[in-house]
Automatic annotation (TrEMBL):
The keyword RNA-binding does not apply. Keywords: Membrane, Transmembrane, Transmembrane helix. This is AraC family transcriptional regulator. The lineage of its organism: Bacteria, Pseudomonadati, Pseudomonadota, Alphaproteobacteria, Rhodospirillales. The chain crosses the membrane at residues 6-28, 40-61, 67-88, 100-119, 149-172, 193-214. The keyword Ion transport does not apply.
Length: 342
């Protein structure tokens, strides 16, 4: 028979797992042009989803089995913040050259957690009468090697949290500065969403970190942990809602290094590409191609078949026109005075 808290965790975990899967499906549906940046949001969704799956198993299996599963699920916590950081690096036009390096920390963390579980296992078996309360709480003692390993893991997570959150805010600021001249009419919506994502993630990651510290050093914090899980569910729900309402926000901007079709801008000089103080040198659409985009768009609107599609999104319309979503948004805003929803 489940206790009330176990039942609540199970309900939230099932909802969170379903929401994570739905988010990943939505991001994948944005198409290949959006995949480069959105893959990191998918990694984020997958990592949180693994945590939800772990919580789904918790009330159904023994505490000792739960302990054995810790090395399988716990390392994914170290992929949460790097994945958001790489997402903002990607959309700000400064992708990480070797992004896999940001996830190499999972290897030593997994090994350390495996060692910690091996050492904790003996204590749990010896103290079977209080097996549920022993868990992974830190209880320093003369033979507390497992506690020291766990403490090292916690310190590493806190350091990564501080470093990556600083980088995320810097990337987001750079992205908003660049996006102002790209999306014009949509820039306010973009700014509102990015700010909302930043503040939400910062609060959520901070509470998540403090909750785990409290749980390890002070006392079990089941209700706080449940609140964090609910927070992740709400973040997933909000992200899905924004994708459905304005998918163009989830498509990275295009530069000369990643242009598409015959409507893309011609390549500039290396000097222009390296000039960080002249963002307008990275034109979205060449002037000579604007009329061609408008003609194709007018033909699609006149035909009306696509315009009556209730599931029409910016990427779908841009694909029909033969341009990227950002290029289409630029022409709509700058030359037609309309947004996608207009």
């Amino acid at each position: 028979m489940f206790e009330t808290l176990d039942l609540l965790f199970l309900i939230v975990s099932v909802l969170g797992t379903a929401q994570a899967i739905f988010l990943i499906v939505l991001l994948m549906d944005e198409g290949k042009r959006a995949f480069t940046a959105n893959r990191w949001l998918m990694v984020f969704g997958f990592s949180v989803g693994m945590s939800f799956i772990d919580d789904t198993f918790d009330p159904m299996i023994s505490p000792l089995t739960n302990l054995y599963l810790v090395p399988v699920f716990a390392p994914f916590f170290f992929a949460l913040i790097p994945s958001i950081y790489l997402y903002f690096r990607e959309i700000s036009g400064d992708p990480a050259p070797r992004p896999y390096r940001h996830f190499l920390v999972l290897l030593p963390v997994t090994a350390a957690i495996g060692l910690m579980v091996y050492l904790k296992r003996a204590r749990m078996i010896a103290d079977d009468g209080h097996i549920r309360d022993a868990g992974l709480q830190i209880e320093f003692s003369a033979t507390g090697l497992a506690d020291m390993v766990l403490l090292a893991i916690v310190i590493l997570f806190c350091v990564l949290f501080a470093v990556y959150m600083t980088g995320i805010w810097r990337c987001a600021r750079r992205y908003l500065q660049q996006a102002d001249w790209q999306l014009q009419a949509d820039s306010e919506r973009l700014r509102r969403w990015v700010t909302e994502l930043l503040v939400g993630m910062t609060v959520l990651f901070t509470v998540f970190t403090l909750t785990n510290l409290f749980d390890l050093f002070v006392s079990r914090a089941e209700w706080l942990s449940l609140g964090v899980k609910v927070g992740f569910v709400l973040v997933f729900f909000r992200m899905c809602q924004v994708i459905a309402q304005n998918p163009a926000l989830f498509v990275q901007r295009e530069t000369e290094g990643g242009v598409f079709d015959d409507l893309s801008v011609p390549h500039g000089s290396a000097q222009e590409l390296d000039d960080q103080d002249a963002p307008m040198s990275r034109a979205i659409v060449d002037v000579s191609n604007i009329e061609r985009i408008r003609t194709r768009l007018e033909r699609i609107v006149t035909d009306r078949n696509m315009m009556l599609d209730p599931l029409l999104t910016m990427p779908k319309l841009a694909n029909a026109v033969g341009v990227t979503p950002n290029q289409l948004s630029y022409v709509l805003n700058q030359h037609l005075g309309k947004s996608f929803f207009d």
